[in-house]
Specification:
Blueprint (H helix, E strand, L loop, with lengths): L1 H13 L7 E5 L4 E5 L4 E4 L4 E5 L4 E4 L4 E5 L4 E4 L4 E5 L4 E4 L4 E5 L4 E4 L4 E4 L5 H8 L7
Antiparallel strand pairs: 1-2, 1-12, 2-3, 3-4, 4-5, 5-6, 6-7, 7-8, 8-9, 9-10, 10-11, 11-12
Length: 139
């Protein structure tokens, strides 16, 4: 019974949006984007460039669905084709299962060569991967 309660709680929180806006930064620590509490994604100029729904749906600035991710970290495009995956440890892989980067537990974003490309402190790992690695949102 406890196992099922834990599973239920895990599923409820799997798609929960951040409570406050979470800033996305480049390697120089300059703001390049933000994920608002309501799921709006803004660029560095504070213009809305898309939205991430609490069900994992990714929409562009015209509110057209351009992708989706599931509770397991699998990211799909609008044709339902897998474009990548974020593993529980923050490792990001492309559709061919090749390592493309990692989001560390402190929010540091690293590319495939382990070089820092940004910071996403407090941003859910899947959201950060959609922004930094799979470029659903043109900045």
């Amino acid at each position: 019974m406890i196992r099922y309660i834990f599973l239920y709680i895990s599923l409820v929180f799997a798609f929960q949006l951040p409570v406050d806006a979470q800033t996305l930064r480049d390697k120089s620590n300059m703001k390049i984007g933000e994920v608002e509490a309501d799921g709006a994604v803004r660029n560095g100029s504070n213009l809305t460039i898309g939205r991430i729904g609490n069900d994992g749906t990714i929409k562009d600035m015209r509110n057209m669905t351009i992708g989706k991710f599931d509770k397991n970290g699998t990211i799909r495009n609008n044709y339902n084709m897998i474009v990548g995956k974020v593993q529980s440890d923050g490792t990001v892989r492309d559709k061919s299962n090749m390592y493309v980067g990692k989001i560390d537990s402190d929010g540091t974003v690293r590319n495939g060569n382990c070089m820092i490309i940004g910071y996403a402190k407090g941003v859910p790992k899947t959201y950060a991967a959609v922004f930094y690695f799979f470029d659903f949102f043109r900045r």
